[in-house]
Design goal:
The chain is an alpha+beta fold. 35% of the residues lie in helices and 22% in strands. The longest helix has 14 residues.
């Protein structure tokens, strides 16, 4: 997957799929992502909330420069990760 700003990220357990400042758009994109990535966990993170921003920045450091908005996080569920080992 790619960073929402375009930098290539390595294979990982999670990725930022989309960024927007509009919550309604975030909901629509999250629903689209759920239909595309069945079996993966989809979350909307609010970048004005420090815990959500830290979680998003841990996945994609480019997001740290954003002070507000929403990102769509796609994550491999723990049960899938644990069964792969």
């Amino acid at each position: 997957m790619r960073s929402f700003l375009g930098t290539l990220t390595s294979l990982q357990e999670a990725a930022i799929y989309y960024y927007t400042k509009d919550y309604d758009v975030a909901m629509r994109i999250a629903n689209e992502a759920k239909s595309l990535y069945k079996g993966l966990k989809i979350e909307i993170l609010n970048l004005s909330e420090i815990e959500d921003k830290l979680k998003a920045s841990d996945i994609d450091p480019d997001i740290a420069s954003e002070k507000e908005g929403y990102v769509i996080l796609i994550k491999v569920p723990e049960d899938i990760l644990n069964n792969g080992n």
